[in-house]
What does this fold into?
Amino acid sequence: MVSTHIEVNKIIQAPIDDCFNWFYYSDNFVKSLMVFVCKPQFKGKYGIGSRRIVLTVAGLFKEEIVSVKKQQEIHYKVYQSFPKVIQDNNIIYFQAISSKETQINWSIELSVKAGCLSEFLTKVGGKLASELYDSILNASQKELRLASKKF
It folds into this structure.
C-alpha cells in the first residue's frame, strides 16, 4: 500500500505549557477555518485511550489518543474515517526554544484506501492534510499570541 509522510512545523510565540495544553484540548482545532467539529467522544474525556470526532474539509475522522508525554508529544491514530484512510502513527511534538517560544512539529503517515485510485488519492490527501494541519498550527499561533498579549 502506498503511503505518504507529512510534516508541518511552526514556532509559536508562547510557552510550551500553553502550546501543549492548546493541542491537548483539541476542541481548539475548530479555530482553524478547515475544521468544523472537534470534540471528545465522551464529554470532558481527554488523555490516553480517549476518542474524539473530527470533521474537516478533508473528511470525518474518529481518532484515539495512543500516548501522551506532557510537554513533549501527543500520539494518536485514526480508527475510522470517511474517506477511508489509514493513519496509525500521528504525533505532535513540542520543544521549548525559550521560555516564550515553542517549536511544534506535526508528523503524519497517511494512506488512502481506494483500490486502483489509492496512489493518486494518497498524494492528493497528503497535500490536503498538509494544508489542514498547517491551518491548525496557524490558528494556535494566532490565539496563543493574543492570549500572551493580555498579560
The longest helix spans residues 118-149. The mean pLDDT is 94. The chain is about 25% helix and 45% strand.
